[in-house]
Amino acid sequence: MQITLNNPLDMHLHLREGDLLKAVLPFSATPFSAAVVMPNLNTPLSTPALALEYQEQIAALAPHFKPLVALYLNDQLNKASLQEAKDKGLFLLKLYPKNATTNSAQGVRDILSPRMLEILEIAENLGFILCVHAESAGFVLEREFEFHPTIHTLAKTFKNLKIILEHMSDKRSIALLEQYPNLYATLTLHHLALNLDALAGGTLAPHLFCKPLLKTPKDQQALLELALKAHAKVSFGSDSAPHLVGSKHACSCAAGVFSAPLLLSGLCTLFDKHNALEHLQNFVSTNAMRIYGLKDLPQKSITLERKPPNLPNSILNGQLIIPHFMPLEWRIKSH
Ligand code: NCD
Ligand code: ZN
Fold first, then answer.
1. Which keywords does this chain's UniProt record carry (predicted)?
2. Which domains does the chain have, with CATH numbers?
């Protein structure tokens, strides 16, 4: 049994820098045609020049893969810099609330401040898409829900701004998608395949610790239903976020699941298990093409077969663990 996916897209990906970038990039650049690449590097990609330089660096390392680097939203952006970004092909802005996650110390302190609203209005007029890490600073399991008032305000104030609620994790967020025509979401593999038990129900699993936190079985089920029918307002965004063992196995464990090596095998396994393989193409590509208005992507046809893959447990001499967090019954067919 086989399935062929055309132009798979990962609409939320962390590729990091230096040796880590070189080590993780092939897992995404080989099977995926394009990916939205997040700007939360050690030095955030807060200017068009920084974002473009990083985009070019990735493109040079992976010629048949289109990196779509998001610009890190900050209050130093203005009409001229946003216009420059747009002219040079950047079209995504990433909103990190200050201190919400990895490398967000330079994130936005007050999203609804007059300055930010001015920047967002410029972004709306220039046709940017706003990707949002939608979490408050409150109790960890309620953060996405507590962020809803901000989403309501943004969606109502900027009706022509496409807003993406990244890595949707809480079933109570689904109603927002129905309410606002300009609101969309990405869904990760780990939030579809796992719930909080996988992280903390037995021995603690640091490689499954991420922001937003995995939630209840009911949340997982509700998100999975959206994905399995490829709801028109969701696209796949893995949020694959590698951290070296040293920052995972320490007194303080960095947030992020390195899922890139498992993604297409995991998605096929999950969709097959629920008899939904016919909707996988929409979930992993067609929806995103439409929502983000993508064209001119490197053409890729990826065939998977129903056989267990053979994935390593780690790379980089054991420094980067690959968490085998779900059974994998499909593998990418080699040519
Ligand atoms: C991401 C990272 O490490 O960059 N971590 C995570 O837990 N998802 C950042 C993010 O998307 O929140
Ligand atoms: Zn992320």
1. Hydrolase, Metal-binding, Pyrimidine biosynthesis, Zinc
2. 2-332 (3.20.20.140)
